[in-house]
Every structure is written in C-alpha cells, then in structure tokens.
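Reading is simple: each integer encodes one residue's backbone shape. An example follows:

___
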Amino acid sequence: MKKVLRSAFYRLGPQSRRWVRRALMLPVDLLVLLRHGGRPRYAGIALPLPGEVFTGGGDFLANGLLFKAHFMELAGLRPDERVLDIGSGLGRMAIPLTDYLTRRDAYEGFDVVQEAVNRCKELISRPYPNFSFTWAPLHNDLYTADGARAEDFRFPYADADFDFAWATSVFTHMDRNEVARYLLETRRVMRPGGRFLATFFLMDSQAEASSQGGPYAFKVQRDGVWFMDAEVRAANVAFSPEDVEAMARAAGWSSVEVHFGRWSGRGGPTLDFQDLVLLRA
C-alpha cells in the first residue's frame, strides 16, 4: 500500500505534490508550533515546518546536523573554506553551517525550485550575508514543471572557485547524463585538493538482493540504470558503483570513496540512509 500511495503521489505535478503534503502534514505542523511556541529556530533562523519540506524525509534540523558532521569528519571541511551546495532546497545543509563557516564568501547554493531559493535569501542571507543562493531554472520531473535541461547546465561559478561541495538527495533524482554533467561541472569549479560529497542509491548485488520486497525496491531497469517506477523517471534513481566511479573518473576526479548506506536493508555498519560517495580532485 505504501508503494502504491508513493507512486500515485509522484504522478501529481510538482506544485500539486507540495500542496498535498502541506494538507496532510497540517496536524503535525500545528503540533510543532504549539510545542515550540512558534517556529523552531537554529542560529536565529526560523526552520521550515514539516509540511513545508518538499525534499527528503526525517527531521529537518537533525539531518542537517548529521551532514555537518559528515562534512567535517569524513570530508575534512574547515571553517575557512568556500563551499558549494548543489540543490540547496530550503537550507537543510546551509542552516547548520551558519555558525561554522567564517569566510566573507563562505557559501554558495543553487536550486531548481525558485520559491525555496527566495525563502533562503530572506531567512538565511539577510542575517548571514556570507551565504548566497541562486535559482537555476532547470526541469526535473520531481520538483519543476518546466525549464532547461540539467545535462546542458553550466554552473554559474568560475573555474577552481570552491574547496568543498556536496549534493545530498540530488543524484537520486537525476538520470545518467545529468549526473555525468554535474560531476564534470563540480570538478571544473573545484580547487586542487577539493572534495565533493554526494549521496546516491548504489545498486550492487547485495543491495539488489536485500532491497527486494522492501520500500526501496528498484524493479525497473533501463540501460544500466534502476528506477522504482516505469512512469516516473526522476523520483528515485539508482546506479551501479562501477557506473558512478566511471562517470567520476571521466569527469576528472582522482579518488572515489564509497560508504554504503542502509536504504536497501544491507547488514553491517552504515553512516547514513543513502550511500555516500566522497570524491577528491
């Protein structure tokens, strides 16, 4: 039943999905407001309510703080570095970094959802002017109804402009040509010694076996790429580890480090729900 409802939800248009989520989550939003006496905050920034969050699941702030730890401990992020947030959304990753990054030009983020970018400019950039957000008018089945093709997109930043970048729950919603383009563009804007942390659904033999029958079963395969739904191309997408490494090497990344997640139900220790891939320039 859960998979049927999710499939029906993905068949709605991007704006309709956001309104449906707001309506369904209204009781939760009201409970949060009552419990906190208003919107909860971090570093003085009002956090979005659960019904307003259109990307990812789980606790908005807790997830951001978890990735802040990944950035620091796994990728060695330092306070004086300049960073790029690919798919900045409502600031899930940006907000926890406002009390850590120190450069005057510390943070750049871009997203395909214009309302999210405008909200981040208002709530984050105003009190933290070293955090900048840009709208990228691109098409994506999950988030936007129209726009340019992501596989042709050139990031609006100069060569060798950043020390560290990340893409969380971005490549899980893009096809191979788009992912390859973003890996190439991220490498272009990365300085020597730069790092890139991205999340994926990686389909190896263990993930394929352990995910069958579960909530994240990728049953449709086309040209070596796995999809959950034959009709929705960008809702959830999985690649093989070998495919991701080949794309990364072709883009010029010198090191590829994989940390498998728990999404498929695989055993053993994991760092996160999705698979983490750390690339080094």
Summary: The chain has one domain: 2-280. The first helix runs from residue 2 to 10. Residues 49 and 277 are 29 Å apart (CA to CA). The radius of gyration is 18 Å.
